[in-house]
Each structure stands twice: as C-alpha cells, then as structure tokens.
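User: Fold this; tokens only.

Assistant: Input:
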Amino acid sequence: MVDDEFIVVLTRMESREIMRSLTKVGGRVAMVASGVGKAVLATYSNEDVSAIIHHHGMPRLTEKSIVRPGDLFKELEKIRRQGFAIDDEEACMGLRCIAAVVYNDCAEPLAAISVSGMTSRLTDERLPQLGQTVREVAAELTVALGGMMPAANDH
C-alpha cells in the first residue's frame, strides 16, 4: 500500500523457488529502489518525484541502482508507456521484480502488486509477458476494489 512517501508491504506469497526477497510484511520500501515504488512514482508529477528524491535521496543499494534523477525520470517515462515497472537488480543483485499499480476510486495509486524472482528465471525474454500479466492483474484488482483506472491521456 502507498503510505506517504513509502510503500508498506501488506502481504506476500512465497514460491517454492529458492530466492531471497528483501521485503518483509509490515516493512517499508523506498520508492526509488523498488519495482512497486517506481510503478507508483510513475503516476506522480515530476515535481512530486523531485520532492521525494530530495527527502529520501537515491541510495546505491547495488551497482545497478538508479542514482541520478535524470536516469530515474527516463525510467518513469518508460514505465508510463508500458504500464509496469521493473526493478532490475537495483535493490538486490540476482533479483528482478515486475510491478504495477492498483488504483482507488479517484484513479490515484492505492497500492501496487509485484512478482519477484531470480534473474535466471525472470529473463529478458519473459519480462514483457510477465509485465503484461502483472498489469492485467493490477487492473482486475482495481476494479474488484471499486477503483478506477486513470484515463490514458493522464500521463
């Protein structure tokens, strides 16, 4: 769920695969260094994103972390176009995450859902299809929770 300038993890389902996800239920996730956070940031104005960067910085968690605002804004444009975000080993080497936003009844971000896995399983070839699936499930959840998808021209 979106909580001020963080994401709070409400629930998670473990797969049988051996993998280490950093998020724990109840844990707070920084916006700039996570798939769910970047998915939500992509719904914000550039001014609001700049404010969050100013408040929290851009920590280098791995060698692939996005640490320059200009790079983050480019990434957010891509997320807006494709409708899902990818954390590509930015929080933990070897781990990828694909996320999409669930909206409330005002078409504002309420929450985000994601799927995580080892880079060996979430391969470049699989990312577009997995992204589409996560996006579709997020849209279904939006409707099920009485929310509303933003109009396409909002971004």
